[in-house]
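Fig. S4 source data, part A: sequence.
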Amino acid sequence: MTDAPYTVDPRRRLLALTQGYRVTQVLYATAALGIAEALSSGARKGDDVAKAIEVPEHMLVRLLRALVSLDLVTEPRPGEFALTESGALLDGRSPGSVRAGILFEGSVLYQHWSDLAESIRTGENVYRRRYGVDAWTYRQRNPEWGNLFDAAMQEYSTVRVSEVVDAYDFRRFSTIVDVGGGRGSLLAGILKTHPTGSGILFDQPAVVANAPSVLASAGVADRCTVVGGSFFDSVPAGGDAYILSVVIHDWDDEPAITILGTCRRAMRSSSRLLLIERVLPDNPRDDLSAYLQDLNMLHSLSGRERSETQFATLLTRSGFRLTRLVRTQGPFVVIEGEPVERPPHDHLARSSNG
């Protein structure tokens, strides 16, 4: 693909940007129909694929040729199609698959983003406005939706884990507490490279219920304790490191301070806080995806992405001092904080009001 013609004519460029939804739905249709699974064994004729997934051949071939234009499929011979390396990631059974993420983005988020203007106009996120509850409550009440969300988050985490483990040395910590750690992919990845360490996985009971299989498959279950609860109330005490991976961006400043305050009370003075988050660059042109994700958090959860200065302020208000930022090979940064001896009065007051 090339966007060269659209860089010349501003009107065409705007139209190309507007029509991005078409690519989203091409990917969604491909994932939903199981096309990558049907092509997983190698090149096949279009009619064979159509029979395998039970759709009309002439319709399918048109979709396959759109996938060729996206470099997700090749057509080595007329009417015969095969997956590219990127296209293979649409197969839900392949290592590194992004299928659940595409299904989530192309259905749930796709529907919700049509409401972005209302979120900005009213200041109310889409879940509150459409369903009268927050996103977490809605997912609990709608398990199919919640399971798709969990599966998508698991996929996103798989890529992030290797980048974080490669960038940051966790071996100085004996006990690592993963707060809001989902099914435990990050903690498992850390402990696989840290054979003498132990971990505590903490998240809502319904979420960590799915963690034992993840921890067992990584061979670290015997070094992990799984605890269910709410980080607005308490988190396990006595850890050497407290990790919150893409958790704080779910929340605006006041609830974020409450969460960090809960962690602060559980920590020793020698413990360290590790936030794994995007850090907004000062110039929006430097990272479009970060600023789009900021809108996603505003729109979906009333949360936000933050700059380094905003993280420093947030930590100060929560009883920490920002000590350093460790950048990964991907879009995420490990933001390290240490507890201050006397948490600010502002932090104590807000935490006690939790």
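Fig. S4 source data, part B ends here. The chain has 18 helices and twelve strands.
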